[in-house]
Amino acid sequence: MDVRGDVPAAAQAGSEAGTNGTAAADNRVTLRKLLVVTGLMFGFGFALVPFYEKLCDVTGINRIVKRDDHKPANTQVDTSRSVTVEFDANLRSNLPWTFRPLETSVRVHPGEIATVVYEVSNVAGRAVTGQAIPSYGPMLAGQFFRKLECFCFDKQELAAGETRQMPIAFVVDPSLPADVNTITLSFTFFEVAGRAQTGTPLATAAAPAAVAAPQSKIQ
Length: 219
What we know:
By secondary structure, the chain is of the alpha+beta class. The chain folds into two domains: about 5-65; about 85-195 and about 200-215, Ctag/Cox11 (Ctag/Cox11 (Pfam 04442), Sandwich), CATH 2.60.370. The protein contains three helices and nine strands; from the N terminus they run ααβββββββββα. The protein has a five-stranded mixed β-sheet with strand order 3-1-9-5-7, with no helix packed on it. The protein has a four-stranded antiparallel β-sheet with strand order 2-4-8-6, with no helix packed on it.
């Protein structure tokens, strides 16, 4: 038996075992380091939350990322001047309604949002549908009068004897010429074709159609 051949083999096996043990130890050390780094990163990220909130409060960035339950203030209101807005109501002669504003005028600052209410009643014994057309005085004021909510956007159908209150929300543009101090907003209601009512006699239903026909030219 060659003893000299066995000695290097044993030495090689011992060397491999030592190498594997060292590698395993190194892996455990690396794993522990990674766990420590991960823990530190998590803790740092968690600590950033109150820091970020404080930074946002100080710099004002928080207004962008935080939900605001309150209506923002209108910062474009020109409190240095006031404009009188007058309200007028008109009906075409064949429309069996009464129509009036609950306030005949209001005084507002340009840029200030205001709301007024009109009241309309159908005095006919049948349902009637109407459409309102706005006009302005002076005429150029229409370019600076912004309607945010208005009953004139839709056809209004009133049942027989029905009374309805309809708001209009508006704002006068701050760029309104300085020499315009009064604006008159006028609405004119006229009858338009509406859906036929169940149980309405044919003669009664036909009458509005005959009246409404020539008014299509006005639209």
